[in-house]
Each structure stands twice: as C-alpha cells, then as structure tokens.
Amino acid sequence: MTYVSFPVSRKKDFTAIGRLCIDLNANEINRPMEETMTFTKYVGGSPANITIGMSRLGMETAFIGKIAGDQMGRFIQSYLEKNGIDTSNVVTDDTGAVTGLAFTEIKSPTDCSILMYRDNVADLLLQAQEVQEQLIADSKVLLISGTALAQSPSREAVLQALTYAKKHGTVIVFDLDYRPYTWTSDEETAVYYNLAAEKCNIILGTREEFDMMETFDHNPDHSDQVTAQKWFDFSANIVVIKHGKEGSIAYTREGLSHRADSYPAKVVKTFGAGDSYAAGFLYGLMQGWTIERSMAYGSGAASIVISSHSCSDAMPTVEQVNDYIERCNRGEITVS
Ligand SMILES: Nc1ncnc2c1ncn2[C@@H]1O[C@H](COP(=O)(O)OP(=O)(O)OP(=O)(O)O)[C@@H](O)[C@H]1O
Ligand SMILES: O=C(O)C[C@@H](O)[C@H](O)C(=O)CO
User: Distance from the CA of 96 to the CA of which of 40, 90, 198, 212 falls in 20 to 30 A?
Assistant: First the structure.
C-alpha cells in the first residue's frame, strides 16, 4: 500500500528549512558540565542533522536557512557542502547575529542535557522573501521543524515555505522538534505548531511534544490514537509518535497503526535519536518500503547515532544501517 505519493521526476529528494547551529559535545562523558573541560565541535540543529542523515543515505538534499557571517557560519556551510547538501538557499546574515551553540552535558547514558546559547542567533533571522520557491518546487519533500516557528522573521519564512510546498505538491514533513527554551509560553507554542501541522502530510513527534500541541485540546488519557486522528482531518497521511527506548507507533489515514521496537544500543547519549530515526524512516518511505520496514530502518539508524559521540557526524550510510540491523538480528548487539 502507498501511504504517501512522492512527486517523481524532481531534481531534489529532500529539502529542509530551519536551524543550523553548532553542537559542542562533552569529551569527558559521565560527568556534569561543571567538571567538563573539553568539547568536540559538530554541526547541529535537528533539521540540519536530518538533512545530513538523508544525504548519507544517498538522497539528493538541500537546506534553507541562515548562518552567521563568521567562522562558525563558514564551518557549517562547508560541512554541509562536504556532505553533498545544496546550500544555494543558505543565506549569510549581515547584521552581526551569531551561531546558536548547544553544549551537551553527558552525565550518563540516560541523563543528558543541553545548555543552549541562543541569543541573537542567525537561524531565527531567515526572512520569508529569502526562501526560494523554485527549490521547494524542485523537491519531493520539504521538512520543517518546530523551533524555526518560535520567532519572527523565521516563523514567517517557514509559513511561506509551507505555502510554496502546498502550491507545488511537495510532500511536507513536520518534525516537531520542540525546544522549550526557544518559546515564551505553551499557549503561543501550541497555536503556531497547530497552524503549521494542519498543512503537513507526515508528522513526527514524541508523546511529550504532542502533549504540548494539545494545550487547547481534550485528550485526558494522552491517547496516541486520539492525537493522530486529529491530523487526519487536515492534511496528514501518517502520524508517528515516538516513545524513546519503548519504540514508536505510526498511524495512517486508512485507520491502521504500526508499532516498531527499538534496537539495542550501547548508549553514549540520547540526543540525535529522533533526528536519525526521521532520516531512516523517511528514506524507507521514499524507497516505497512498508511503514514497518521504514520504522525499523529509522530505529536502526537511531541506535547507531545514540551509540556515537555526535549527532550529525554519526549519521549512518545505507550499508551501516543494514549491517547494524543484521547484527542485531543475529544477536550480536544486545546491550540496551
Ligand atoms: N535508549 C534507547 N535505546 C534504543 N533506541 C532508542 C533509545 N532511545 C531512543 N531510541 C530510538 O530512537 C527513536 C526516537 O527516540 P525518541 O523517542 O527519544 O525521539 P526524540 O525524543 O525525538 O529524540 P531526541 O533525543 O533526538 O530529541 C525511538 O523510536 C527508538 O527507536
Ligand atoms: O539545538 C538543539 O537543541 C540541539 C541540537 O543542536 C542537536 O544537534 C539536536 O537537536 C539533536 O537532536
């Protein structure tokens, strides 16, 4: 069964819009930030990570975003290009804005947090008139992520990108990517998330993220089924609700639900799980695979990334995901 029809004969498989930033991941793991002395620098930001993931899986990709006009901005641009990502719609800020920094604290495999430096960041300064309509028209998929909706003018840029995607029949994916520190209130967040989600064909989020979106709804039991059903009355064909190590459930417009278990992992840190899951899942759907196989692929990619030090740099290739899943199936990776 085909759940989503991706427009064929387009130059680009996948374009994302939103946050490009830097992750500084603690080198001395299993200790608090106060005792962490050195960090490794990686490109970060959920939509950037997903695009890097799609590119590693062999997809033709592009990014729409804004970087600082400094060494950090140039580092991000050059990393994207080295990964085969089209940066023709990555705009350089000329106002002195800076690159968002995410310092990751890895206290234990299950206790990680992110300390954000996000004042006057370039990624939130992308303007609606800077979004290239032709790039979206040339892409099979547009992925948006929630953080870019947090402030103007990036909010309007995302809404304009959604308008272009609708106009050209580009499949729209929404990775909720809810980062509370970027928002001022639950009510404001819920309003903008819901406005965007109405236009999206595939929605991916955790239970907690959907709970935030339901600030004005009635879902007292936090039912995944109730959550998903709401979006089928709008544009959604697939709603995926992720439950960390417990796995994920995908609901489809046809009324079916599919569950995927997670694969075992020797967890270093849990960030990046959702981004790698999204890349693997979307890659599978775009190959015409079943939802179950696509979810399993996403879960395999996630286990690889959480077993690694970085998010972006650890995004796996097709061979790496296949190999990981085969090793799990043979019982060679058992630690979870
Ligand atoms: N501890 C774990 N062990 C194995 N797999 C995991 C673990 N945590 C997450 N995963 C895998 O990653 C997928 C997505 O994880 P999760 O629900 O934590 O998303 P997320 O909260 O968006 O991730 P992120 O931490 O990147 O924001 C899960 O469905 C599962 O396959
Ligand atoms: O911006 C953040 O919140 C952290 C990111 O930079 C990080 O790469 C991430 O989003 C992992 O999901």
Answer: 40
